[in-house]
Design a protein that fits this description.
CATH superfamily of the largest domain: Type I PLP-dependent aspartate aminotransferase-like (Major domain)
Bound molecules: pyridoxal-5'-phosphate
Number of helices: 14
Number of domains: 2
CATH class of the largest domain: Alpha Beta
Helix content: 40-55%
Shape: globular
Order of helices and strands: HHEHHEHEHEHEHEHEEHHHEHEEEH
């Protein structure tokens, strides 16, 4: 028997990272010493006090083994609200303006389902984290790709979005600190412009702030919700995956516009029960004790960033140090870039055992770049740079 999946599955672009994953497995099976800088999957363990809280809760509080509350337990939502106030000076109601998520990826995909009718238009950054594009397509919507270009510091030029598109669009996705470009918002003027644009065209702003805490060199990432009027037009997604190295725990949250949150909550209540209660309890403990462990994590990423940039520079590959995220966004040097970022990434993993994310995997404007995730020990970067130099046969 042959079962045919829904047409919308065929509309999704090929998942380029699965090609790299497959080559990574092949490299492992050939006993190549793999240096995995591909996926943004933190290698650091979750801080001890969060793990302790989880173990203690699971062992001693069997009530937490029951179904959780889909929107998140009140204690979790209160902790989010307190953290938001303390971190951003923004007040969000734990009752009406916050819900928990099974990771922000889940939340973004379900938000698309909850708000897009077939044919509705959403404005998606290119390059961008793939779930924005895929979430829109799975909901039957149409994507308008908004280029993020180096010459504009990877901020979109909202005035270049055609009037016809802006009038039709229902959602615009933004993400700063940005994956994959590592760009940040430097002052409040950009988000103010976003609010004006959203009000003018009646567009929902979805700001993904998954990297708000992974910042360096005294840079502090803002919340979109700090912008006057932001709550009337949008909401902001947050993740525990990078902040507390909890990618496998699957928990995040979204805060902002009460009406949007209510519809998302309604949609989610039909399809999931939320993150397990014991995970919510451990995660909220993380939020309450956020300072020290985040500082330590950022020191580690900053050290890796500096080390790898220095090693790459020694072989002639210059990369601008990012102020945030645990990535380097690197322009593929020289003639080899003509083959394209996928071919270059395939060559890297096959010949050197180094896994990276090809820029094209984030959209056509990502072509010509690769993204290195700083998710391996510092002492691997010297070797990684030497292998790249050897592959290219000369300094880049
Ligand atoms: C921009 C961005 N948003 C969301 C996520 C996913 O976060 P979560 O693990 O909370 O689903 C990622 C993960 O890499 C990301 O880069």
């Amino acid at each position: 028997m042959k079962f045919i999946p829904a047409r919308k599955l065929n509309k999704l672009p090929p998942y380029i990272f699965s090609r790299i994953n497959q080559l990574k497995l092949e490299a492992h099976s050939k006993k190549l010493d793999v240096i995995d800088l591909g996926m943004g999957n933190p290698d650091l363990p979750t801080p001890e006090h969060i793990v302790e809280r989880l173990c203690d809760t699971v062992r001693h509080h069997p009530r937490t083994h029951r179904y959780p509350q889909a929107k998140g337990m009140p204690k979790f939502r209160r902790a989010v609200s307190e953290w938001f106030e303390k971190r951003f000076g923004v007040s969000v109601s734990p009752e009406k303006e916050v819900i928990s998520l099974i990771g922000s990826k889940e939340g973004v995909a379900h938000l698309c389902m909850a708000f897009l009718n077939p044919g509705d238009v959403a404005i998606v950054p290119d390059p961008g984290y793939p779930v924005y594009y895929n979430g829109v397509v799975l909901a039957g919507g149409r994507v308008y790709k908004m280029p993020l270009l180096a010459e504009n510091n990877y901020l979109p030029q909202l005035h270049k979005i055609p009037e016809k598109v802006a009038r039709k669009a229902k959602i615009i996705f933004l993400n700063y600190p940005n994956n994959p470009t590592t760009a940040v918002v430097e002052d409040e003027s950009f988000f103010k412009e976003v609010v004006r644009f959203a009000k003018k065209y009646n567009i929902m702003v979805v700001h993904d702030n998954a990297y708000s805490e992974i910042t360096f060199d005294r840079y502090v990432a803002p919340s979109f919700l700090q912008t006057p009027g932001a709550k009337s037009v949008g909401l902001e997604f947050h993740s525990f995956s990078k902040t507390f190295s909890m990618a496998g725990w699957r928990i995040g949250f979204v805060a902002g516009n009460e009406n949007i949150i209510a519809s998302l909550e309604k949609f989610k209540s039909f399809v999931d029960y939320g993150s397990p209660t014991f995970i919510q309890l451990a995660a909220l403990h993380g939020l309450k004790e956020a300072g020290g462990c985040i500082r330590e994590t950022n020191e580690i990423y900053a050290r890796r960033r500096d080390r790898f940039i220095a090693e790459l520079s020694k072989i002639g590959w210059e990369v601008t140090p990012p102020k945030a995220t645990m990535y380097l966004w690197a322009k593929i040097p020289g003639k080899i870039s003509a083959a394209g970022s996928l071919a270059f990434s395939e060559l890297l993993i096959k010949e050197t055992g180094i896994a990276v994310a090809p820029g094209i995997g984030f959209g056509k404007y990502g072509e010509g770049y690769v993204r290195f995730a700083l998710v391996t020990h510092d002492n691997r970067f010297h070797d990684a740079a030497l292998r790249i130099k050897k592959l290219l046969g000369h300094p880049v």
